[in-house]
């Protein structure tokens, strides 16, 4: 068998570190996760971590990006099953909000992520979500379903509402009770964008 190419080895190392960090951050939280334990668990050195991610914060960024991208893909899959583009948009937002009930999402993305990495609206994964929402809103405006408002502004507000609802749920003492209230309010807010039908 030919030796692995350098790029494959680098990717394999990165994947091992992200996988181990994801489990450690979800179980123990960012602050309590030991980088020595994490690297030893996958048979690597701290040097490999620093070489690939710069530091512990860089590793958290990679883990958050991975989870957030998975969340967006899952929400999009749920939205694509809806009967209309409008209902799909609402279903995507509600699905994203509901994922705040998942322990890994709560701890890594919604609690530790903002505390360590700052404003989630500036994360690369959130920006790709925003682009997708803008495209959907532009299409709904063109179809006469949504009022002719600025598509980026509407999309930022919709995404911001879903993100803040998820943050609220994650920080709540009773996430399940908050979920129903958050999804109902999200749908009501979004409905203000609809063109009035006689």
UniProtKB/TrEMBL annotation:
Annotated HTH tetR-type domain ranges read: 11-71
Which Gene3D superfamilies does this entry report, sorted A to Z? Tetracycline Repressor, domain 2
- Which ranges of the sequence are annotated as binding DNA? 34-53
Q: Which residues cross the membrane?
A: none
Record key words, sorted: DNA-binding, Transcription, Transcription regulation
The source's superkingdom equals Bacteria
The name this protein carries in UniProt is TetR/AcrR family transcriptional regulator
**Native source organism of the sequence:** Teichococcus aerophilus
């Amino acid at each position: 068998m030919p030796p692995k190419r350098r790029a494959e080895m680098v990717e394999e190392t990165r994947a091992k570190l992200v996988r181990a960090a994801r489990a450690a951050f979800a179980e123990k939280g960012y602050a309590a996760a030991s980088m020595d334990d994490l690297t030893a668990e996958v048979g690597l050195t701290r040097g490999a971590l620093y070489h690939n991610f710069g530091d512990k914060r860089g590793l958290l960024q990679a883990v958050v990006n991975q989870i957030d991208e998975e969340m967006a893909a899952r929400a999009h899959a749920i939205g694509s099953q809806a009967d209309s583009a409008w209902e799909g948009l609402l279903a995507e937002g509600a699905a994203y909000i509901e994922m705040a009930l998942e322990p890994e999402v709560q701890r890594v993305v919604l609690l530790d992520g903002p505390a360590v990495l700052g404003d989630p609206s500036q994360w690369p994964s959130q920006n790709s979500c925003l682009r997708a929402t803008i495209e959907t809103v532009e299409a709904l405006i063109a179809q006469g379903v949504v009022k002719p408002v600025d598509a980026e502004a509407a999309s930022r507000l919709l995404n911001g509402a879903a993100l803040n609802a998820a943050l609220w749920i994650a920080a709540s003492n009773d996430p399940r009770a908050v979920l129903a209230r958050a999804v109902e309010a999200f749908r009501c807010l979004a409905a203000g964008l609809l063109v009035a039908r006689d």
